[in-house]
Design a protein that fits this description.
179 residues, alpha+beta, Alpha-Beta Plaits, five-stranded antiparallel beta sheet, single chain
Length: 179
């Protein structure tokens, strides 16, 4: 199969104006300002561990859903499968996100509750892996403070009272700190 040079193809396959109109059509829902993006989460650990995202989305589409979900579907996008944890997605309307929070969604015949994602979801973060057991969390904190940053340090994984040694360092910004 021959490769087509994209700039050359723009004028030949489709008229340039039509190409420009359809180029981003499929991602329009996601093209809203970041302050209008609300992260939502479906806690479905077993499903997200067992199935790929395309299979999960197909199951959601095939299942009979609540009126709340059906009416909200045009305003949700950017689904992400987090294996063993669940499915995160973005809602592009605060009022719709509020309606979805606490509502149910059916996936593979089981109902799951949709909830607003963590307050940390809008914050920039860095995951620290393989943190030595003897390294005190205060040392990590002091390191970032010396850079002029205000870190918040949490275990990367926590289930009940059990926590991982890996750490997530959160910063009160949506972008990578300049330091």
């Amino acid at each position: 199969m021959a490769q087509v040079d994209a700039p050359e193809a723009r004028g030949k396959i489709l008229p340039e104006r039509l190409f420009d109109l359809v180029a981003l059509r499929e991602v329009q829902r996601a093209r809203v300002p970041s302050e209008d993006k609300f992260k939502m989460f479906i806690s479905a650990g077993d499903i997200s561990k067992t199935y790929q995202l395309d299979e999960i989305l197909a199951a959601i589409t095939k299942e009979g859903q609540t009126a709340t979900w059906t009416e909200s579907a045009p305003l949700v996008c950017d689904f992400i499968r987090i294996p063993g944890r669940g499915i995160r997605f973005t809602c592009t309307s605060r009022s719709v996100a509020n309606k979805l929070d606490g509502s149910a969604i059916r996936i593979f015949g089981a109902d799951f509750i949709i909830k607003a994602a963590s307050m940390f979801d809008r914050m920039y973060y860095v995951n620290l892996k393989n943190v030595a057991s003897e390294l005190d969390d205060g040392v990590i904190y002091d390191y970032f403070k010396q850079l002029g940053l205000s870190p918040l340090i949490t275990p990367t994984f926590q289930v009940g009272s059990l926590t991982s040694r890996d750490r997530t360092v959160w910063f009160n910004t949506q972008v990578c700190p300049k330091e």
